[in-house]
Predict the structure.
Amino acid sequence: MRRGRHDRPAGRSDRGGLRRPVGVGRRPDGVPRHAGRGPGCVAGRGGWRFHRLGQPVKPAPFHYCRPATVAEAVEALESAESGRVLAGGQSLIPAMNFRLTDVSLLVDIGRVAGLDGVDTGEDGVTVGASATQSRVLNDDAAARAVPGLRAALRHVGHLQIRNRGTVCGSIAHADPAAELPALAVATGAVIGVAGPDGHRTMTAPDFFLGPFWTALEDAEIVTEVRFPAAPAGSVTVVDEISRRAGDFAVAGLVSVIHVDGGAVRSARLVGFGVGGVPARLESAEAAISGWASDHPDRELIEAAAHDTADAFDDIHATAWYRREAVAALLVRAARRALASPEAP
């Protein structure tokens, strides 16, 4: 099909070059002091905003900053009324496009030095804030040290999403139906944070406070997540019920199960998609101890139902369905762990 003069790519002039961003250099009242100053910072309605046939882009007006260091990123956030961190943007940008979140300053940490590492050692895997999910998924050393990383990331979105999305971004977003926050709780991950008062760490159960709500204070940034190495003799199973591959889970379970002598000796079980935060299934953890494949399922099912008694209803599933799903996933995880070649 032939292209007409109105079919030029958005943001390009008649002479083939990129047009100047609309509004750059203007400083209306309330513009953060970092917008339009310093490394990579741009002021304007919508940051780098271009018109296509006279129409503005989807998000509400915002300002954009691309700092070079963590300190600059923290300083920029501290100066903004409602600053947000952009890492992969696979959740944040759609929310901005639908105007579901208020962002006055977008702080892009994609080029901040030292945040793109995936470091594997005897004690586990440390994932930097800008390391993509695809990079971690394809890291064989990380998969050997923390098998749950690869198991969880296989459920996350699709290839294109994983190529841009970040592990730390998913954890900071704290979607109750996401796999990575549940994995963080199940493995006892430690989250590193930088803010105006310096650096601090917190454990995953302390980090998640509610749906899309974390313990991050104003102007703080997740800089890394440290996943401990899987215990010897353990099998990690990440399983979920979703309507389509890549969708968020209707209900899910992360299981780190220690197997010995053909029976389960202990387990850390974390349900997700059933409540406001990923939560340990403590009754099920007690019930599964000593369980073997020739034992009846009933005790596990009852324990899982007790742990998920507060499951919620929504347009995707009823609370009853979620309780049944987690119970089925628990039995399936136990059987998979006992049959796994990784089991001693």
